[in-house]
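quick one, three chains, predict together pls
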Amino acid sequence: MTSLLTIKDLVVDFKTRAGNARVLNQISLELKSGEILGIVGESGCGKSMTALSVMGLVPSPPGKVSEGSILLEEEDLLQASNARMRQVRGGIISMIFQEPMTSLNPVFRVGDQIAECVLLHEDISKTDAWERAVEMLTKVGIPEPALRAKAYPHELSGGMRQRVMIAMALSCHPRVLIADEPTTALDVTVQAQIFDLLKDLQRETGTAIIMITHDMGAIAELADRVAVMYAGHIIESGLTKDILENPHHPYTRGLIACVPHLETDPTEVRPYLSEIKGVVPSLTELGKGCAFADRCPYKTPVCEERRPDIEPISEGHAVACHNVEYVVAV
Amino acid sequence: MATVDEPIVVESQSPIREAMRAFRQSWAGMLGLILLILVVLFTYVGPFLYSVDPFEVIWAPLTAPGETERAPLGTDYLGRDILAGLIHGGSATLYVGLAAGFITITIGILMGAFAGFFRGAVDEVLMRITEFFQVLPALLFAMVLVTLFPPSIYIVALAIGIVSWPTTARLTRAEFLRIRTLEYVNAARSVGAKNSRIMWRVILPNALAPLIVSATLTIGIAILFEAGLSFLGLGDPNVFSWGLMIGAGREYILDAWWAVTFPGFMIFLTVLGFSLVGDGLNDAFNPKLRER
Amino acid sequence: MNMAWMVVRRLFHAFVLVLAVLVLNFLLIHLAPGDPADVIAGEMGGATEEMLADIRKTYGLDKPIYVQLGVYLERALQGDLGQSFFYNAPVLDLVAGRAGATILLVVTALLFAIAVGTLLGVLASHKPKGIVSGLVTLVSVVGYSAPIFWTGLMLVILFAWVIPIFPIANMFDITKDTGFFGFILDVLHHLVLPALTLGIVYLAQYARLTRASMLEILGSDYIRTARAKGVAETKVYTHHALRNAILPVVTIAGLQFGSIVSGAVLVETVFSWPGLGTLAFESILARDYPTVLGILFFSSVLVIIANLITDLVYRIVDPRIRTGG
């Protein structure tokens, strides 16, 4: 598989009243065509900012992409013109958001909102664009699509609206779909439906998906590979199977332990912590050490001194921790 | 996303002192306050320093400003001193503005409080009345009132009050509707407080912030109203006011720009003072908006 | 909710308001000091005893008050707003003859204010701390605080004395005979200053309002969605954001219609614009009460109609209201 999207050493800064916040710090990621890449982490760790950087939608000011590159195959999107980025957005890379309730424009019919996307990216008549909208609504499993296309967002439920968002995002057959916590705002039963839908569509169209979530369960179900983020850094990445079964970074281990496993015996004593103590540090106050050091049960003096680089530990599995061997041994 | 840095509360202060501190930091509020102080000094201290009678003819009519020391800002079409008019014209305007503002706010708070507190049929009836008063073009209605009844500044103030209260009523109602469901109102009710006590002692104090802002703006609007009526010659004919001066100078505007420009500018400064103070109070009461 | 049923309810509501204005007029006649017949005749109508007797008979003034109210309402609803003794014409004719000029002025000023105001608001929202933003704030504070008749007079000085390019009085030049289109152009030429004076106050308010709601909307999720699907920035502003930002402007413009009519009274007086405002002013000076009350009634009806239209427009621009959501 070839590399479709490559993020290299991406740095994004935000100016706040408290000083400069380095929201993304030397992020490197790779998305191969046709795969589902999961990005996990707590809120505020930079997952969404990574997505917005790819889309070229970092709110500016106060945000600014300071360093790095984002390659779509060979083309650096950070150097692309505005006109080119408009072609890319929605046409080659599209995105769905966390809040289906507010992500659709309340004064336009949903069919028109989907058709607008098609009209922007394809040389097609208005009637055909509307046809495509109805077709997409059918694809995402909306009953009576011809009728629903004429509905306004407020007439649809949250799950329906997220389906509309997915239909819109996929309407121009993009090569990459970024899903930013697509189910967080939805009921649990609806969440499962949306996941199934994404999985089916992915199989059918071969669109590569970047799945942003804080839900390890969703990752286990969907993702081929995972990147774990913490305070603007990627601290571990690898195949989903490796990460879930053999997590190396103390933070990843904590995240996995937070997920209750129905199949495990509740009386069994857990080998590691089931909550992560403390909170994510303020990004304006990151020192030179490891960002996780304050919350880490395995902290050693070197953790406060120097930030660990992300290093491969086996084929496709990389970790940023000074004490990997020790952590795994415990 | 960047983590939001919450300001740390260093010491707790009473909301009034906190608002006053915030007001002092408001650029608009302080400018407005200074303007108002200057206007009040000009109107109430001015007559002692500059004792020319505004009704007295002192020089040739339509003398331009600076042509004679007797009338530094020129004379009107009868030869009366413009500066004297400015000094003496303010008190009626301020009086009517404050009185009409007071009437407006009283009626508005009463109507809004009862509508918002009792809801249901009371609300329905009171809001229909409010709506009715909003349909009447206020100035025309006030014009009718001051012509049907013998003109005096009291009638003018009353007429302005009668036509302007609906906005305050709607605001009060909205605040009462919002606050009546809050926990501390339920708490007061659960210890057996009477309706009247809950309305005036529990809810009203908590609704005061937006009402004070609105009252400030209301006074400004009332002053504009008074000026409009006086301009049309429908004010109290025995009282000198800025609006009256503009109305009188209007015919001669191309011969004597000063006769209309200066009094209008005084009205403008006064109303500007009130609306800037309103802006400042708004900033002081809504710390969230201050960030914008 | 059923659209037809909604329209019927609104119309009924409007009708009740119209009746209420008539009742108010009736009350004013009777609450005013002195003989109601004198009020109806008008102080300067030079009413003879014979005329007063006639009025008492027509309006049933010797009968109980509720009968009088009934008579008054019945006559009014048939279009009889009384007789102006000063102008020696039916009030309805007088009012109808002047209403067109006022409607032209008010509607022009309002459309001008909404169009330019929203445009400025959108420009200001693009750079929240830029020059346009500062200008909008400044003009709205000044426009809000300056008496409208004074603003008008200042424009008169400016455009009659400093740069004389616009006529400063009347609605058309009676000395010119330029045919139909010439006449239209002449009226428009005369309309510029009054409409500008009346419009500028509201223009600034709408600009400020549009700026505020645009800033809020530009940060909303659906604008991010629009950008994410590749909509060009200009279109994000004009299509996706403005369509939502215009909603509060429509609401406020509807609510303010009464105040715009009030402003028109003053502006008409300043520019001798031959509308209801100047008529009201003249008839008040003449103590011609039937005409004054007729104008109060008619202008209230204008506001009621304007409110109905606003309601309708709002339903068209906001689908959430339209479908009762």
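Chain B has one domain: 28-51+74-290.
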